[in-house]
Design brief:
Elements (H helix, E strand, L loop, with lengths): L9 E6 L4 E5 L3 E5 L3 H6 L7 E13 L4 E9 L4 E8 L7
Antiparallel strand pairs: 1-2, 2-3, 3-4, 4-5, 5-6
Length: 93
């Protein structure tokens, strides 16, 4: 299966049970629209990426779709903070 990734070239990819998130080289964060499991069973899935506001340093998605984002506030001073929330695939439909 092949699918087009988010624009900007991938730096990091993280998957949960129902979701897929990515950070590109330009530090933008993206989430795959829809339910990952449903997309994988389609004969010709359409991958649509939604940009998440802000610039991110890293991302981690757990098996229960809990997302941990490390936001980048200042590249020169390396200031960041963590955002953790539970993701539902229906939020991006």
């Amino acid at each position: 299966m092949e699918g087009k990734g988010p624009p900007g070239g991938l730096m990091q990819l993280s998957a949960g049970f129902n979701c897929l998130w990515a950070i590109t080289r330009d530090k933008k964060c993206w989430a795959l629209k829809g339910n990952l499991n449903e997309l994988l069973v389609e004969s010709e899935p359409v991958f649509e990426w939604i940009e998440i506001p802000g610039r991110m340093k890293s991302i981690s998605v757990g098996k229960t779709d809990k997302v941990c984002l490390r936001c980048l506030h200042s590249e020169t001073m390396n200031i960041s903070h963590l955002i953790i929330y539970h993701f539902s695939a229906s939020q991006l439909v």
